[in-house]
Each structure stands twice: as structure tokens, then as C-alpha cells.
Amino acid sequence: QVHLVESGGGLVQPGGSLRLSCAASGSIFSGYAMGWYRQAPGKQRELVATISSAGNPTYADSVKGRFTISRDNARNTVSLQMNSLRPEDTALYYCNRAQTSPVTWGKGTLVTVSS
């Protein structure tokens, strides 16, 4: 049973946009804050954005004003709209619970920002 499935990554040029999606099982989604995380080559995994069960978002300073997190509680999905992408945004992006111990990580979706 796969509990977290990320999609939407790809190769984009600097300044471009991507929208990532995460499909989660109801058992790990409903009633929980969710977050997007990323891990760049040679770096630790970092928290990019969170959204509470009520829809209140938070963002890392590095992505404020460029990324928007959203969720659809009826469909158990969380999305990340990424605009004005920079090479330093290149990473494997994951979704998981936030503010709570994460469940087993999914495979992630790769975002590469390069000219």
C-alpha cells in the first residue's frame, strides 16, 4: 500500500513554474497539517511549506512570495504551486505530515531548474 504519491516534477528553466501534487491516504491526511519538503543533492531534507487542516499556510523564507501550498480535504490531496523558480530550488520534493512525526516517505518528485 502506497500512502503518499508525489507528481508534477520536471525540468524547467529559471523563472519557470511547476505545480506539484501529492495524493495521500485518508488515514494520514484527514485532520493533519501537511507539508512539502525537499532534498537537494548533498543536502539535508528541509521543510518548504506547510498547511494546516483548516488551510492556513506557512513557508520557508527561501520560497515566500514564490510558492503557494493548498489542499483539497475532500480528495486527500495537497499541492504546491511553484513560480519564479531558481536553480537552488532543484531538489527531490516530498509531501508528508507536518507538525507531527512523518509517516513512511514516498518516492518524491524531481524538480530540476536549469538552463
The run of helices and strands is EEEHEEEEEEE
Radius of gyration: 13 Å
Basic shape: globular
**Helix fraction by DSSP (H/I, runs of at least 4):** under 10%
Structural class: mainly beta
How many DSSP E strands?
10
Alpha-carbon distance between the termini?
37 Å
Report the uncertain regions. Answer: none
Q: Walk across the major sheet and give the strand order.
A: 2-10-9-4-5-6
Biggest β-sheet, characterized?
6 strands, mixed
Strand % is: over 45%
Q: Return the average pLDDT rounded to an integer.
A: 95
Give me the number of helical elements: 1
Characterization of this structure:
The protein is mainly β and 115 residues long. The protein has one helix and ten strands. The mean pLDDT is 95. β7 (67-72) and β8 form a beta hairpin. The protein is 3% helix and 46% strand.
Comma- or semicolon-separated keywords:
115 residues, mainly beta, 1 helix
